[in-house]
Design the sequence.
């Protein structure tokens, strides 16, 4: 069965960087685009970024464009989200999501606080 | 950017009641709409895809309808395990953009 396992979350100071990972299994990772979606505490869902199956096309929400970078390593079946210049508004649970079949990971919590 | 307006933001209903949630897109999205259920501390669970298709394993009391800009999600008879927050989500058919509705919190009266 499809499994998506996020990691890399934690507490980070404002202005610092963090890299999230999402390890995929149970499907042909290299055939699917992948999303990052986040959810601030007590808030709704917010789409963050999308990467095509081969990594050539990348799309970002206005709130993270220029600060976050989505990437993937198909040989490792892993999706990444490099987050720079983090602010308190980036505090959220970050989910990776399989494009098309809409399978979600369990999420990893990122807290931006001094 | 496509905006999704979901209503109501919260509702209270009795067990066995019919519950309806609506979602309106700011432009035509054809059938490209999903409905999710989310319980506290959990990832969203896909219930309905392509506006009206029931995901495998999801009880038949859940249904969806609509096309274009106006969509409806229905629970035909509310069960205790249906207490959750529900979200609509549009996805561009040339997948460049995903937008979620604001969510509807369903509680028992």
Sequence:
């Amino acid at each position: 069965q499809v499994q998506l396992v996020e990691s890399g979350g934690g507490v980070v100071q404002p202005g610092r960087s963090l890299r999230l990972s999402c390890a995929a299994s149970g499907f042909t990772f290299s055939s699917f685009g992948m999303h990052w979606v986040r959810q601030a505490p007590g808030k709704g869902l917010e789409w963050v970024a999308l990467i095509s199956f081969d990594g050539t096309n990348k799309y970002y929400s206005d709130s993270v464009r220029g600060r976050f970078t989505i990437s993937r390593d198909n040989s490792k079946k892993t999706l990444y989200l490099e987050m720079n210049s983090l602010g308190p508004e980036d505090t959220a649970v970050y989910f990776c999501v399989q494009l098309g079949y809409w399978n979600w990971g369990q999420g990893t919590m990122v807290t931006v606080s001094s | 950017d496509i905006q999704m307006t979901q209503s109501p933001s919260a509702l209270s209903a009795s067990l066995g009641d019919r519950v309806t949630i609506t979602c309106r897109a700011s432009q035509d999205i054809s059938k490209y709409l999903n409905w999710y259920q989310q319980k506290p501390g959990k990832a969203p669970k896909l219930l309905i895809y392509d506006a009206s298709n029931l995901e495998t394993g999801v009880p038949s009391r859940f249904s969806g309808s609509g096309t274009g800009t106006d969509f409806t999600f229905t629970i035909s008879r509310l069960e205790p395990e249906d207490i959750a927050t529900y979200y609509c989500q549009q996805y561009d058919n040339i997948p460049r953009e995903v937008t979620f509705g604001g969510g509807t919190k369903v509680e028992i009266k």
In short: Residues 35 and 104 of chain B are 11 Å apart (CA to CA). The mean pLDDT of chain B is 95.
